[in-house]
Every structure is written in C-alpha cells, then in structure tokens.
Amino acid sequence: MRGLTLPGALDEAAAGHPDTAVTFPSSAERVRLADLAAATTALARGLVADGATPGERVGVYSRNNADFLTGVIGVTRAGGAACPLPLPTSAADLAGYASRLASITAAAGIHRVVVGAGVDGIVRRLGPILPGLRFRGVGELSGAGGGPPALPAGGESDVAIVQFTSGSTALPKGVVLTHRNVVHGTAAIVDGIELGRPGDHGATWLPLYHDMGLFGTLSAALIGTPMTVWAPSTFIKDPGAWLRAFASMGCTVAPSPNFGYDALLAAVTPEEAAEVDLGRWRIAFNGAEPVNPTTIERFQDRFGPAGFAAETMFPVYGMAEATLAVTFPPLGRPPLTTWVDRDRLARDGVAQPVVAGAPGARGLVALGRPVRGMRLRVVDGQRRPRPDGYVGEIEISGDAVAAGYLTAGGAPAPDATTASADWLPTGDLGFLTDGELYISGRRKEMIIIRGVNYYPEDAEALVRDAPGVHRRRCVAVVDAGEAGAETLTVIAETGLADAAERVRLATELRAGISAALGLAEVSVRLVAPDVLPRTSSGKFRRAEARDLTRPAAPLISEVRTDARL
What we know:
Layout: H1 6-16, E1 21-24, E2 29-32, H2 33-49, E3 57-61, H3 66-77, E4 81-84, H4 94-108, E5 112-115, H5 120-129, E6 134-137, H6 138-142, E7 159-164, E8 174-178, H7 179-193, E9 202-204, H8 211-221, E10 227-229, H9 232-237, H10 239-248, E11 253-256, H11 258-267, H12 270-273, E12 283-286, H13 293-303, E13 313-315, E14 317-319, E15 324-328, E16 337-341, H14 342-348, E17 361-365, E18 369-370, E19 374-379, E20 392-398, E21 404-406, E22 412-413, E23 424-433, E24 436-442, E25 447-449, E26 452-454, H15 456-463, E27 469-479, E28 487-494, H16 499-517, E29 522-527, H17 542-546, E30 557-560
Parallel strand pairs: 1-10, 3-4, 3-5, 5-6, 9-10, 11-12, 12-13, 28-29
Antiparallel strand pairs: 1-2, 7-8, 8-21, 14-15, 15-18, 16-17, 19-20, 20-23, 21-22, 23-24, 25-26, 27-28, 29-30
C-alpha cells in the first residue's frame, strides 16, 4: 500500500528522490532517503525476528539523530505502532522523570523500547528503575534480522504512531494516530505552505519526540525535500549561532514556539542581525504556544534589515490530535493582529474590537483558516456553534484528526469530553471572524475569582516585559491560599540579587496587575531563573507551576494581598 502508509510514503520519496538527505549536524550524520528506507527495513526485520507482533506499541527512545527516524518508521514497517518517548530535560530529577516515563509506557502498554545512539548512559540508569521495559538498540536489532523477507502488511487504518502530548495542564496523553492520519496530516502541511518549491530546505531544532518536530520533519522528507535537524541544545545554548548556521545552509522553512523567537531577540543584537542574510527564509512557523504580537513586531524590527520579510512570520494553530496542522494563514500575508477589549473577552466571551493602545486592549494574532481536509467550529457549553466574534471551545474534524487517546493499560478510547465521533474538542478557547481563527486561552486554565473570569495570558502580558523579569518568563495561576480564599498568583522568574530590589519588583508588578484587571486578590511570587517547568514545546506546565505557590516551594520574594475591592 505504497503512499497510504508511513513506510509506503517513505518508499515513494526514496524512489523519486533517492539522494535527497536528512542532515543531523549535532551527530555529524547525513542520511539519503534511499538509505533511510533500507535502514527502516533492516530494523523492521530485526523487530519481527525479536518477537515484535503486529499492532504492538513499541517505544522509540533517541536523540535528534538518524536512529530516531529509523526507529519510528522501522517500527511501523514491522506492523507496530511507534511511541516516541521524551528525553529528560535535566539530569537533576531522575526519579521524577522515571516516574513520568513509567506513566507513559503504562498508558501505552509498552514493553519493548528501540534505543538510538547517544542515550546509552541514561538507559543504563533507567533499566533498574523501569524493570518492565526491554531496551534494544537500533544497531543491535538491525543487524540481527536477516529475514524473514516478508514483513507484516499494515493498512492505512492501522495505528502508526502514539504521540504523547506535551500538555501544559496535565500529564501527557497518548494520541492514537493511524497511517491515514499521518499521511493526510503531513500532506496538509505540504499543501498549506507549498513545501517543495525549488530551493526549499526544511530545518528544525525542536525535539523529534514532539509533534511539531516529528511531523515537520516527516512533511519534508516524505516529499523529497532536504531537511536539517539539530539537537535542541544547539539552539538553547546559543540561538545566535544556530541562526547563522541556518542562514548559511540556505534553509527556507523552520518551526518554533513563540519563545524561540524571543530567545533569538535576546541573543542577537541589531548589529549582529545586520550581518546575517535571512533573505531565503520563506516560512517561520510560530505555534505550539500563544503567539505574542509584541514578539512578532520586535522580530520584524530586528531582523527585517537582515532580509526577513514580514510575510515570512507564519502564526499557526496546531496540535498532536490533528497530526499537527489545524489552521494556516494565507501565504504572502504579513501577520494580522486584532485588538479587543480584554474585560469583555474574559467576562462576557465577546471579542469587542478596540483601537490598539486603548486602555484594556488585548492583541490577538490571526491564525488563519483550516488546512486542507480539516473542519473547525467554535461551540458553547452545549456544543452549539457560536456566532462570529463570540468565544467558545474549538472543535476539529477531518482525515488527520485522531480517533482518541489511550487509557491505562494501552486500550484505545475516545477522550471523555468527545461529544461525537465527528468532532474532537480541543480544550482551547477562541473565536472566528470571517472564517479566521483567534485563540483566547485554554478552557482548563481559565482563572475564576468570585465568579469572574480572567485569562492568565492577560496577567502575564502585564508582567512579561517588566525590567527585572528574567527572559519574559512568568505564569499566572489561581492559588487557594492558606485561608482558602482564591488569589490570582503570578509566578515570575528574576535574576535580581538584591532582596530590596526583588521586593520592589514584586510590589510594582502586583500593583500593576491589580490596577489593570480591577482585581484586589493578586499575588506575585518571584523565583530564580529556570525554575518554571516547561513542556517539550516550550509551554509552561501550569499544573506543576501551581506547586510553586506552596510554602515549601523555592521562593526569593513574594508580595500578596487578600483585600477585597
């Protein structure tokens, strides 16, 4: 079934573009598509010889290198479902990481894990902690197959990938994606940006175990477009060096969450920006977390002189449940920001237009219309469609949309909130204007105090750019407090060393939030740099961040009030 399954699509690309390569600078690898197809076949035969059965969910544990792609596609070629597993973001909390990994593998029913190069050390440490997992190296399996010549035949309705969401509000969920989902999802990305134009060259530094990294890479590889994949640490450690390498290689398409563009702004001065030629950068996806209009404006001001065109910035909406892409803006249009009344939006669910700069104005970036094969609607609490300009929950439907999630023990099941087989609730809140989507927040993250709704993004926007806040990092949550009274608490990172300066910053931030939102129950808690927990896509883990409001959490300054208006 060539072209209708993930390995079939790779075979077609390898036949038509055998010498097109995926390059991994961090591991000094360059893999031709013809060689990648052969490697996945060898791995699949090794898995079958090792006892892997059709439909088995097999973990793939690897850095951003050739073994990762070999592992994912090789598992599906053997008739199994590939389950990309997250790598640890820090070596400091091995026990906590192992616990999260145990939850993921239990949910997927994983017992066999294909291991790529470069993670031997962590695997040796995980083995005794996770005795139920059997780790086997890609090289070991690939050299042990030898046959049989026939491999299990998979169909487009079979499960290809179980993608674990990075979830900012809960533990990761296993999204069940069929071969049909993957083929249609990657085709929608290709169609939406006309990927494959002469000279196109994809690039990513995002982890391949994350949906934006994985499906972005597959979208290019499966149509024979060159792709370069860096290790995430390459970008995180030196965003400026990554940008220079990206430009020098002539890359044209790259994705990043909004925080990545903020990191480039912090790392590259106007003088340094002028020395980089970004004229070939055609699509700069901005997704996976809220798109900040201020970031877009600053990025254009900084890198426009380097050849970065306004229409290159490409704000999008996507999620693992959609095999990534949900809405894209039209090609060739610069980002569009609509300004609405912040209070009407939060309290009444109405997007009342206001002039930019007006008191209480909130800027929301347009995220375009549904991609090919995708349907979208905005509904109220009874799943009735909302009119234009009215906030509701976003639901999606289409060939690329997952049927549901895994339950404990690996049994597939629809999400408990799914209203019907036709529409999948996303948990995101937003509205439509003339068919164009705007995201206003997350349903589970809405802060309700004394019956009044507040978007955490509104409080965060008031704090993010304040002098003293480390790299614009802050999170707003609701805190019950010692007396049980609910308080809007903003947790912000700061590098200020002087205690008096920290108290002054916290006091000023609290006063600003309280005045702007008309809310007395406000608390500001300052923590050290890099304390706020993030997902693999850069979003803050709000559920975990809320734990930082507890008395035992690391604290360097706090200002709070329980006064009533």
